[in-house]
Design brief:
Layout (H helix, E strand, L loop, with lengths): L2 H10 L4 E2 L4 H7 L13 E3 L4 H18 L3 E4 L16 E4 L6 E3 L5 E5 L4 H9 L3 E2 L10 H6 L7 H4 L6 E7 L5 E5 L4 H7 L8 E8 L1 E2 L3 E9 L3 H15 L4 E10 L4 E10 L31 E5 L1 H8 L7 E10 L2 H18 L6 E9 L1 H8 L15 E10 L5 H21 L3 E2 L19 H14 L4 H4 L10
Parallel strand pairs: 2-4, 3-4
Antiparallel strand pairs: 1-2, 5-6, 6-10, 7-11, 8-9, 8-10, 12-14, 12-15, 13-14, 13-17, 16-18, 16-19, 17-18
Helix pairs in contact: 1-3, 4-9, 10-12
Length: 482
Amino acid sequence: MDAQLQQALSDALPDAVFTPGSDAYAESVYSYFSSLAQLKPALVITPQNAADVSTIIKILKPFVDGRGVKIAIKSGGATPTPGAANIDGGITIDLKHLTGIKLSADRKLVTLGVGETWGSVYAALESFALVVAGGRSSRSSVGGQITNGGLSWLSPQVGFSCDQVTSFEVVLADGSIVTASASDHADLWLALRGGSNNFGIVTRVTMATLPHARIWGGSSIYMEVDWPAQLREFATFLDEIDDPHGYLLLSIGYMGAMGRIMCKNSVYYTKLAGGCEEANPPLPIVPFSTGIPTRITPMSRLGVGSIKEFADIEAAAKDGARVVYMTTTFGLDLPLLNSVSEAFKATIETLKAVPGLVYSLSFQGFSMSLLSESASKGGNSLGLSPEGGPLVLMLLFSSWEASADDDLVISTQQSLIGDVDALARNKGRYFAYRFLPYAHVGQDVFTGCGDEVGTKLKSASRKYDPDGFFQKGVPGGFKLTD
């Protein structure tokens, strides 16, 4: 680490700069969801507010521009992508202290610090019978969810999480603090709605609130024999029913501890009628919950609860395992869903001996309802439209114990993604979009957003960051120049 830079940062923010060996450094470095993201920066800086972030950027800029110093920006560390929010040998700016939840006088908007967790946000809004279209885990933070697009259980009703943002407070590469909205810096506002860490450091977001009622949801665990029937129901729901109150995520996977393939549906319904309970779910999602013949009742958890209660359940996973996500997207087609499932199952044998293995394939829909709602909210940087839908978003998930197995697990997933894309092309269902929160290093995120979006993003980058501070100095995540 450049001694002059370290001294300048320590002089400006003496209580916010931490080196290896300090408790605050360790707390930040070991708070990532995946151990693959637990890198070793030379410094961790924990600003308290946007003014601190501005000070940091002003000090860093000449060292980034002239001496090749590299930085990372961490909001909560939930993404497993190595290097997306941390950096070996560089400087990690940890935004965990940028908190705050402020409801507008008319209660239609709420302003959130990007270091807030969704659990805290939901808890604060529940007392006003309100909610936002935020993350599905109480532990994940506001910042990454919003700037990377974000899926919510409410997305079929209101679009992506980023579509609900009316303004961003953001620190630019010159250290200035601006507010971007539909009426002020509108090009930056659109870019930040899904454009990730390419334009500045977002410190606060203002989102639309929604009336909150209890929802029906949870998970159904069932046997592999019912998977083909569930795929049929999924295709019908997405193509014909398209109920905007229903949210579905279907998963099939192998758990080394059990030594077998099992299936799981995460299913939620956000509009309740009287009498809904575990044994009496809303009719549109009966086929995905209590209607599954081989449902294992003791392992399933279904019922009525608040969004916070369900987000708390999703947050139960422990940090520290080696975790990789990879993703692709394709047009809805039932034979293709079955072919992809068979291709996934064929790879299990390759990985069965990996200690601590959890390996799964998940499908969720970009329904016409979701895509239409998203398109009606003023625009974003995702490049999706109703004309392309409905689409299937595919997630490959793996978790394991030892670094010795990294290459095998990662290469197996990469090969499978290539096979799935080939299957989709053969069916005429290939779609280049890659959902950024699920993407792995090397996956081409922004090309899949289309030429029009790509041109606008690069234009915003040149306008607000003419020296390329966030392209060159923040190498992690997915860059516009990739």
